[in-house]
Specification:
about 270 residues; alpha/beta; Rossmann fold; two-stranded antiparallel ribbon; 10 strands; about 35% helix; globular; binds S-adenosylmethionine
């Protein structure tokens, strides 16, 4: 309790979890408790269907989590040749995407080796497609490049120094066309930080178009694109993303403090 109060009054935060112990400590429990009780986590051939006319993914039988539905809908609509999930955890989104879109090359990375072991246990078909990747390290040419790179519930938990900005910058070097961020939008000022990274020359892309991407199940995400995407609402502010949510004052304050630590570009002295 005392530690919690101290944590809340700190200016510099750690990440939300100790990633070394995360699988046994939190992830499997959350997967079983929060996801598998209400949604089908692992889909087989025929369970899912993508309708190109509406851009919607339908699940036959049990529902899938709205965030996963959004990821699959984004893949279906953008039609990338290669997709990479950074922070893929137990691999369910990746494996289900492979089942629904068998012609797309899928890879995944995660900083937790035990997370990747869990992914291989749940989805043996991911063998040879996943590897250790710490998004907060300097960019590695060994990371698989992909047209679309996405994260789901990864950057929202990263709060150590300016690590989430390093991770953002890395994503834009790994992705050649699109970056999809399926994250809790109260945990960082994603739009503000991305624009600051762009203005400071920290993104590899020549142009950056930001959109709000809404899944048919009610989930929302940020889609960043090198070239304009039709029929999506352009994103100017974080407020636009948070519209309709009840903001947590503590989270918003932490997001502001995280943003304020960034030093961008090369300002003349
Ligand atoms: C909440 S889990 C989400 C996993 C998966 N994306 C999902 O939706 O089930 C967060 C994941 O991010 C990974 N992660 C945390 N920091 C990371 C980093 N710096 N680079 C790569 N992965 C990271 C963790 O190991 C963990 O698997």
């Amino acid at each position: 309790m005392f530690q919690k109060i101290l944590y809340k009054s700190r200016k510099f935060y750690d990440d939300d979890f100790d990633w070394e112990n995360y699988t046994a400590d939190s992830y499997e429990r959350r997967l079983k408790g929060d996801v598998e009780t209400a949604f089908r986590a692992i889909s087989r051939a025929g369970d899912l269907q993508f309708d190109p006319a509406t851009g919607h993914v339908m699940s036959h039988g049990a529902p899938i989590h709205p965030n996963q539905q959004l990821i699959l809908e984004a893949i279906g609509r953008l039609e990338p040749a290669r997709v990479h999930e950074a922070g893929c955890g137990g691999g369910d989104h990746l494996a289900n995407a492979m089942t629904l879109f068998p012609d797309i090359e899928m890879t995944g990375g995660d900083r937790g080796r035990s997370q990747l072991m869990l992914a291989l246990k749940r989805h043996p078909e991911l063998s040879g497609r996943v590897g250790v990747q710490d998004l907060t390290m300097p960019f590695s040419r060994q990371w698989p490049r992909a047209e679309l790179v996405y994260t789901q519930a990864v950057l929202m938990h990263i709060h150590t120094a300016v690590s989430h900005m390093v991770a953002l910058s890395n994503l834009f070097r790994q992705a050649t066309r699109w970056v999809l961020l399926v994250e809790n939008v109260q945990c960082h000022n994603f739009v503000r930080d991305l624009r600051a990274l762009e203005a400071g020359g920290h993104l590899d892309w020549e142009t950056l178009h930001l959109y709000r991407f809404d899944g048919s199940g009610g989930a929302r995400a940020i889609l960043a694109a090198q070239v304009p995407v039709e029929n999506l609402v352009p994103l100017e502010t974080d407020a636009q993303l948070r519209d309709g949510e009840t903001p947590s004052a503590r989270r918003l304050r932490r997001a502001d403090e995280d943003s304020a630590r960034g030093l961008f570009g090369f300002d003349a002295a």
